[in-house]
Every structure is written in structure tokens, then in C-alpha cells.
Amino acid sequence: MEAFVQSTLENGVGTITFFHPQSNSMPGSQLRNLAAEIEKLGRVEAVKVIVLKSEGDRTFCAGASFDELISIKDRETGLVFFSGFAAVINAMRKAPKFVLARIQGKAVGGGVGIASAADYTFATEFAAIKLSELAVGIGPFVVGPAVERKVGTSAFTQLAINATEFQSAQWAKEKGLYADVFASIEEMDQAIEKLAATLAKSNPEAMKHLKEVAWVGTENWDQLLIERAQISGDLVLSEFTVNAINQFKSK
Fold first, then answer.
1. What are the extents of the domains in the chain?
2. Taking the CB of the first residue and of the last residue of the chain, which one, N or C, has fewer CB atoms within 10 A?
3. What is the mean pLDDT of residues 74-100?
4. Residue 34 DSSP one-character state
5. Closest to 118 measured CA to CA, from 197, 34, 20, 198
6. Each residue's pLDDT tens digit, 23-57
């Protein structure tokens, strides 16, 4: 299968699905398409709630594309690439509709950021999480604000420092990242369908204002996440990071 981002609309529920053959890792073009799709559905009056999901059953999102990371040779290219995750997070934050995330498998790096930026996140017990950025010489700078907002500073710091170890889906639920954790994808999908159907019949203006209240204090993220993207863009050029990424890819 080729990489894609696509959306459907049914009974007021706009569903965005993304896929990449490399464990749903995200090159820059994929991130820009995903952000654009979220923004588009946010403008469609018939869409009352957005569900964000990925294809496959093992990995929700493996984070940034290592192939693209290793190809970055200058600050400008680095900034553009890391701004991709910033664009997705900000699109989710600013969408005037609730975004429900479906985390069916492992979430790594930027995948944790996407899960954190959703307004309500469902997961299976297989949806372990890891912020792996420090292990390759960077750091979870772009996704950090979204993750820290959801789980708190202590849990975010644990994830950021212990960059080689997964934390369980139950751990993520206890910290507030996941609202519900299910034993199977089928059970999770039933719960998502139920909540999405309920929200599709709810007052759109009330939901819009409730989302605005929930995200108070993040008004500076358009600028903040770009500043964080530049930090990552600079670090990815370092000899340490280049060697670390190459070692990781050779495993």
C-alpha cells in the first residue's frame, strides 16, 4: 500500500485515516497533508466531530520518518520538517470540532504528540507509548507542550528522559493521556462509534466553546512550536545525531 491521508463523512462524523508503509512513520509531506485534512474538516459545517485514526493494527504512528531525518542537511530544511508535527498539533488544537483519536497500537515520538493533542483519546491495551527522540540525539521539543499539557510535567519528563523504554497503555491512562483502554480493537471501535454519534447530535456551538475553554493557555503555540521545531532542526544536523540515527537504522 502507498502512503495516504484520506477522510470520509457519515452522519456528522468526519473520519481522517492516515497510513505509511513504514509503521505509519511520517515524512513531511504526509504531515502537511494530515494537517490540511484536519483544517478542511474543521471548516465543513456538516462535520460535527472528527475521528483521527491510522491503518494497521500494530503501530498507530512510529513518529518522524528516519529516511527524511537523515537527509536533512541545513537549518531551513530541518525547520520545515519538524514544523510538520507542529502543524498537525496546531490544526488539532484550533479545529472548532472535538477530535477523537483512535490509538490501536504503539505510539512513538510524534505519534505520542498526536495522541496528546486529541480532545479525547481511545486506546487498546497494545497502545504502549515512548518518546524516543533523546535516544537519537534530539528531544521531544515540538510535541512536548501537547504531551505535558495532557500528562503533566512529571510524567512528560519521565517519558522524555527514559527514551528507550515503552510505557504501557495502562500507564498512559493513569497519567491522563488515554481516556479509555480496551482489550480489543473491536471494543474500542464500538466505544468510539458511540461517543462520536452522541457528539454528532450535540450542540455545535456548545462544543466549540467547550473546546476553547479546554485549550485556554495555548494561544502562543503557533509561535512556540515553530521555535521548538528550530531547536530540533538544529540538533538533527549535529554529528552526534547523524551517527545515532544511522546506528538506529542499521539495527
1. 4-188
2. C
3. 96
4. H
5. 34
6. 999 999 999 999 999 999 999 999 999 999 999 99
pLDDT(250) > 80: no
| H-assigned helices in the chain | 28-43, 66-71, 75-94, 110-117, 144-151, 153-161, 169-174, 185-200, 204-214, 221-235, 239-249
pLDDT digits (tens, 9 = 90+) for 159-202: 999 999 999 999 999 999 999 999 999 999 999 999 999 999 99
Half-sphere exposure of residue 88, counting CA atoms within 13 Å on the CB side? Answer: 34
Specify the CATH architecture of the domain 4-188.
Alpha-Beta Complex (3.90)
Q: Please classify residue 206 by burial: count the beta carbons closer than 10 Å to its beta carbon, then call 0-12 exposed, 13-18 middle and 19+ buried.
A: exposed
Say if residues 234 and 75 touch (Cβ distance below 8 Å): yes
* Predicted TM-score (pTM) of this structure: 0.96
Which residues in 195-204 are b (16+ Cβ under 10 Å) and which e? bbeebbeeeb
Question: Of the candidates 71, 61, 163, 59, which has an alpha carbon nearest to the alpha carbon of residue 112?
Answer: 61
250 Cβ partners below 8 Å, 6+ apart?
none
